[in-house]
């Protein structure tokens, strides 16, 4: 049975493979694409990242973290996913 984690955005539990992970490194929120970085991490559904930001879910879970670069990563990944979907039609 696969481990479950709680999304910091929607607060629903889901399998680890269905969630993304980010960690706090030197006060910055860093995406952990391989789910292998050391340090305290948080789990989230990709579509819940903005909800987690607006609800301060990352900050509540990790303490004081700077999310600016994480927001840029999420925006770029969302745009890349949209471009992939529009070119595959």
What are the SSEs and their pairings?
Layout: E1 4-6, E2 13-15, E3 20-25, E4 28-31, E5 41-44, H1 49-54, H2 57-62, H3 68-87
Please give a quick description of this structure.
By secondary structure, the protein is an alpha+beta fold. The chain has one domain: Hypothetical Cytosolic Protein, Chain: A.
- H/E element order: EEEEEHHH
The CATH architecture designation is 2-Layer Sandwich
| Tally of separate domains | 1
* Shape by Cα distribution: globular
For the secondary structure, the number of strands is 5
Average predicted local confidence, pLDDT: 91
**Beta-strand level of the residues, as a percent range?**
15-25%
Label the structural class. Answer: alpha+beta
The third-level CATH topology is: Hypothetical Cytosolic Protein, Chain: A
CATH superfamily: YlxR-like
Helix content: 25-40%
Number of helices: 3
CATH class: Alpha Beta
Provide tags for this entry.
about 90 residues, alpha+beta, about 35% helix, 3-stranded antiparallel beta sheet, 5 strands
Describe the protein.
- By secondary structure, the chain is of the alpha+beta class.
- It has a single domain, classed as Hypothetical Cytosolic Protein, Chain: A.
- It is 36% helix and 22% strand.
- It is built from 3 helices and 5 strands, in the order βββββααα.
- It has helices at residues 49-54, 57-62, 68-87; strands spanning 4-6, 13-15, 20-25, 28-31, 41-44.
- A 3-stranded antiparallel beta sheet has the order 4-3-5. It has a two-stranded antiparallel sheet with strand order 1-2.
- The longest helix has 20 residues, at 68-87.
- The chain starts with a strand and ends with a helix.
- The model has no long low-confidence stretch (mean pLDDT 91).
């Amino acid at each position: 049975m696969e481990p479950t984690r709680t999304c910091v955005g929607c607060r629903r539990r889901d399998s680890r493979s269905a969630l993304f992970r980010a960690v706090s490194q030197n006060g910055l929120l860093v995406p952990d694409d391989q789910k292998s970085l050391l340090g305290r991490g948080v789990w989230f559904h990709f579509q819940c990242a903005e909800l987690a930001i607006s609800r301060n879910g990352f900050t509540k879970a990790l303490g004081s973290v700077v999310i600016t670069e994480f927001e840029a990563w999420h925006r770029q990944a969302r745009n890349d996913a949209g471009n992939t979907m529009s070119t595959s039609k």
